[in-house]
Amino acid sequence: MTLSKSHPSHASSGIQSKSDHALFTKLSLRNARRQARDYLVYFVTMILVVALMYAFNGLIFSDEVRFLSENTAQLPLVIALASIVVIRIICWLVSYTTTFMLSRRSREFGTYILIGLENGQVARLFLLENLIVGGFSLIAGILLGSFLFQAMRAMILTMFGTPYRLAFSVSPPAALLTIAYFVFIYLLAQRKCRKRIRSMKIYELIYFEKVNEEIVIQTSKKRRRIFTASIVLGILGTLLLLMGNLLFGILGAGCIIAFLYGFFLSFASGVPAYFEKRPAKKYSGHTLLVFRTLTAKLASIGILMATISLLFTVVLISEGSGQCFNALFWERAAQNSAFDLFIGIKGKEPDFTDYLEYIEANISVKASRTYDVYLSDDTRFLDYLQANVKYYFQTYDKDSLMKFSDYAALREMMGCSPVTPVPGTYLIHCMPHLEKPIQDSDILIQIGGRTLTAGGIYTENFNQKWDTTNGHMYILVVPDEVLENRSADHRIYAAMTEEPVSKAQFEELEAIEARYADMTDIHSTLYAKSQEETEAADQTVLFAFPLYYLALILTMTAAAILTIQQLSESERYRRQFALLRKLGMDRREMEKTLRKQFTIYYAMPALPPVLISVPFVFYLGNSIGDNMLIGTGRPPVIVLCMLALFFCIYAIYIVLAYTGLKRDVLPD
Question: 184-199: per-residue pLDDT in tens?
Fold first, then answer.
């Protein structure tokens, strides 16, 4: 293709002719196709980003989701706040990628100016190319986002116990908001490149590709000192995060940021200094080649690698925190909803008359039980827990007791396996985190002149959170006759219903509870399984979903930039491996060397975040859950899920980059 240089006085009119305009458009389309092919990772990432944006915008405009409960009415505000962060992140991705494309194509643009195009026309050409690629990403992303929205909608409706029907559709308000976000992002990102192209001279364009990141730390000796100091700051920052104090947490975050930037800016001197003192390791295998290539790379992109590592730290902490909070919400709901309806009253004369009259008239009950909870004169069991259990907070000053007949009836209502009493023993029903320390004890208790030995331990959910429930975290089940002449501490009504208690029914029961609250000598507790699950779903949607949203966007953005940087080195890698082949290295050794370089390159920005986030998430899971998270909510499981989710996405980018680079750079 050849463009004739027009005379300056006719350049403007010539380029605006129909034939030149058609050629201009054809050139833009061709270059856009080439961009989509050469920067496939970026193209796919933008499609996925648009899909996530559309799906979450769809939640904002979904009447179904908005009216599930009062709390989900706050969802648009939460997503809007998260979207502000997301837009800023995507602006960075688009701006970085377009600047990177400009640097790689600067010679081409300089040539266009040499053969007759003006700077403004080249700027418009580059803008049009990117808008074409962005437009296709937008269309494909909205289509994919429609399916993703249906999946998220189904997930949310399932959490609220609401029936749903999958149906493909495009939400015009969500699509318009996504388009508005996208246009703003692209125009803002392209404005900088367009302004730069319009102001650059030909020689600046031709040599723009050779401009590297400015070396912040100039002397090698200084970099080595900073390398050591950064490691110390990283350890100190991680320890400060685990102190559980806001001020220490802020200081810890500052230390970690200083560690990441100091580490990557000084790595190019720190590692060579290590190998200089250990020549045997330096010259073993392919160590010299691998680390020389890596340090050369980091010398030019140290700030970028530090920023990506910081983003990965935020990603892992966001994912882990989201899973911890989600587990906590649902575990609390499960603990408080062993029965479909649960009412506890504490006072001189506990009376369920008002409650029972309303329930009989409005709620269909399958099974119910009214029973008493007592307090022992003995405190041996309580004393043992306070001395041996870290997460036990005293509510009663004595042990809670229950009759065996009531306990057996309640287990039958819950659908639990029956228990058989053993004369002279008592049973223990406790929250799961107390099971192990209780197993290690063999406490004798004395009630009504009788001594009882410990029997079985049971840990099913049993409404054991507060003072008018089935004990605070534990209750001792004793023979009925032991409690015959003892006064009750509080009375409980527990029921299983034919249908979940509706919101309107629960509000009527709350009105009755409020009347009891006006009585100075009465304390009442009210739980309904349906309302506890709704509250857990509310909290999950409002807190966990936005954290996952941010984590996914951050992961894809950072991984895409890393991959674009790596793929941009294909020409240099090709020359390197061609030379190695001439020196006698076979293809198998080349593949091994390339894998090592890839492993270290992708592991470096990910390893510090893993070392920081894993202890933090362990600490968070144990602290917010008071060591009561069980099953899939246990901190080790949360950490494994967090790492699995992160590395599944990260691995996709690694595989795409490795297969593409291996195909392009290794000689046949």
Answer: 888 887 777 777 777 7
